[in-house]
Design a protein that fits this description.
It is a single chain. By secondary structure, the chain is an all-beta fold. The protein has one domain (6-71). Helices cover 0% and strands 52% of the residues. The chain has no helices and five strands. The protein has strands at 6-11, 17-29, 32-40, 55-59, 67-71. Strands 1-2-3 form a three-stranded antiparallel β-sheet, with no helix packed on it. It has a two-stranded antiparallel sheet with strand order 4-5. A hairpin with a 2-residue loop joins strand 2 and strand 3.
């Protein structure tokens, strides 16, 4: 990765503060390219709620459970 376009700061659930670089990226979402901000953190990837607007999110909360993201009518 190159130099981030900004720096971010977040308060974690355990009370620690995290500082991270923010990059610009392009993803393919529902078949269309879309520009997004990408927070560079050392953890599992997450999708922001703004990206999910207009979609249904279904999660099987168990080890190996499936995750489905479906466009709403």
């Amino acid at each position: 990765m190159g130099v981030g376009v900004a720096r971010g700061r977040a308060l974690l659930a355990d009370g620690r503060e995290s500082v991270f670089d923010i990059y610009e990226g392009t993803i393919v979402w529902d078949g269309q390219p879309r520009r997004v901000a990408v927070d560079a953190v050392d953890t599992e990837p997450l999708i922001g709620m703004a990206l999910l607007a207009g979609y249904e999110l279904t999660v099987e909360v168990r080890a190996g459970g499936s995750v489905r993201i479906t466009p709403l009518p």
